[in-house]
Amino acid sequence: MTPPIAHERVLSTLNEDGTRNWIRPKLARGRFLRRRQIVGYALIALFVALPFVKIGGRPALLLDLINRELAVFGAVFRPSDGFLLMLLGITIVIAVFLVTALFGRVWCGWACPQTVYLEHVFRPIERWLEGTPSQQAKLVRFAWQRIVKWAIYGVLSVVLANVFLAYFVGVEQLRHWVLGSPADHPGGFAIVAGVSALMLFDFAWFREQTCIVACPYGRLQAVLLDRQSLIIGYDVQRGEPRTKLKKALKKLPVVGADAAPAGDCVDCSACVSVCPTGIDIRDGLQMECIGCAQCIDACDAVMDKIHKPRGLIGYTSQDALAGKPSRLLRARTLVYPLVLAITGGLFVYGIVAHESAAVMVERVEGPSFVELPDGRISAQAKLRVENESDAPRNYTISLIEAPDATLRTQPRWHVLARKSISIPLFVDVPRTSFHDGRREVYIRIVDDAGFHRIVTVNLLGPVTGGTR
């Protein structure tokens, strides 16, 4: 049965019959490639080194899933810091919106780990072993070059998986997994093996489809970009109508009395052959464009060859291509910085004002109160104290501003570093002190390092006329 043939444009990774279109981009050397390589290799070095860097005795960046902690450059967040984590998340999202509104998909082409490792690590190894794209296409499936390449890819994937996991389990735990027998930690071994397999699948086979199919960022361009945002664009006014390369090299005009002047584009398709996602930038702004600037370097080389000015393809904006002036100040670039300043300021203030402990009133289990033989009411309450410091602390619990009440609980509680404890409270108060079945009391919590907090506890008791 013959597969259906598409009559409209399909994804660049698909042929018209639905089969995989293997993209083997050429490498265009130029000023933007050199700059991207500097940025890319610096980010790789940072990614590898960051788990080993410690600030305040903790890794500079660690998402500890086991202990439910997030360490970010000396600041440590726990589940009780939900408001700060929300502010951090909002700040990051708004920052992404602002950067995209100003500089387009600069993250995708210059800093995204998918692009950095694929274009600066895995594809250079492929070119070194298999040659040019045309030579790669001619290799048989089990050529020795491909076997060696996959072996190297496998080792790199294991290394990257281990570095990646160091951000979640810490360097010490990872070292134990690496040096110990897999039988001693089958769960950790399975995690490392699984992540390594995913890395190999992504960088060796799935590749650009991660950007085109899996990543939603490209699809958000329509709402994140405006017509003044920085994009990579083709100057249609200058480039069209296209002429042939041989004519451009000979500097021959297009003949014919009614013929339009020839454009600077020589239709060499160099910009297409170097694109890592397989698109033609001359078709306009597209979801698949990651802003890597390879088409700029390729086109600039051709323009130099035919003695034309550079910039036929370049960093620009949709309005600039349409001949309209550029405007830095516009709705997005005014609102986003304002919101970013508010959320960022609140986050910084929260970090500065962050205390060494968190105290929460919890729901009690069982009866809320009991009546004592002397007619007084013993109401039950519960506090949770989280020690958010890096040292064990002793917390003293006391009742204040309640001369008619008695607190029955252990007065001093020891809490380990980064741990929490649930403290039961029993408060004996007169029956007549309850109003509509409720009574407020104030509990003071102090430690031996200067922490001080007063919390309000609502006690439940008997309603006038009986108990409940």
Polypeptide structure, described:
This protein is an alpha+beta fold and 468 residues long. The chain has helices at 31-49, 82-103, 106-110, 113-130, 133-138, 144-169, 171-179, 186-206, 209-214, 221-224, 236-239, 245-250, 270-273, 294-305, 318-321, 331-352, and strands at 54-55, 58-59, 61-64, 69-72, 75-77, 231-234, 313-316, 357-362, 369-371, 377-387, 393-400, 406-408, 412-415, 420-429, 438-447, 452-460. Helix 4 (113-130) packs antiparallel against helix 6, helix 6 (144-169) packs across helix 7 and helix 6 (144-169) crosses helix 8 (186-206). The longest helix is centred in the middle third of the chain and has 26 residues, at 144-169. The mean pLDDT is 89.
Features:
468 residues, alpha+beta, five-stranded antiparallel beta sheet, elongated
What is this structure's SSE topology?
Layout: H1 31-49, E1 54-55, E2 58-59, E3 61-64, E4 69-72, E5 75-77, H2 82-103, H3 106-110, H4 113-130, H5 133-138, H6 144-169, H7 171-179, H8 186-206, H9 209-214, H10 221-224, E6 231-234, H11 236-239, H12 245-250, H13 270-273, H14 294-305, E7 313-316, H15 318-321, H16 331-352, E8 357-362, E9 369-371, E10 377-387, E11 393-400, E12 406-408, E13 412-415, E14 420-429, E15 438-447, E16 452-460
Helix pairs in contact: 1-4, 2-16, 4-6, 6-7, 6-8
